[in-house]
Prior knowledge:
Elements: H1 2-18, E1 42-53, E2 64-67, E3 73-74, E4 80-87, E5 92-98, E6 112-118, H2 127-133, E7 137-144, E8 147-149
Amino acid sequence: MKQLYFIGIVLLAGFAASCEDSIPFRYDPKQPDSLATRQYPHAFFVVQGIVTDSVSQEPVPEITVTMRTEDPVFTEEDGSYSVQTTAFPISQEFRLIINGYGEFYNPLYPAETLYVHFMLPTFQLTQDDIREYGPRFFGSTFLTVNKTLCPLADE
Length: 155
């Protein structure tokens, strides 16, 4: 009978251990999440570019650009933008939404969704970056995406 209890405890312990999160780069949810305290490799993926009007060839200011699920940024007066996200430092693909539907949607232009690929990225890293973001920070990698928007016809 004691052997049966022992086998039951061993099976229960094995089951409980197998249910534990096994993702090696997942941070502890009980710890505050900041870039300096992350325990897994991470890097900044930055997309920069210019948004222009296809008819006038002029830059389009105040258009939202969103990458991944980050907060949207607005294009500057010269149409330029720069968005970034933090992710595991390997080849990545992110969704980039230009003029997304929502609170800041500009009805003069349609919403555009692009998929940007960072294939075998190289990262720029300085000692100051390591001090600020921690020893597992790999640096920043950049990609340029210029987009021309076709204005909607006004009927």
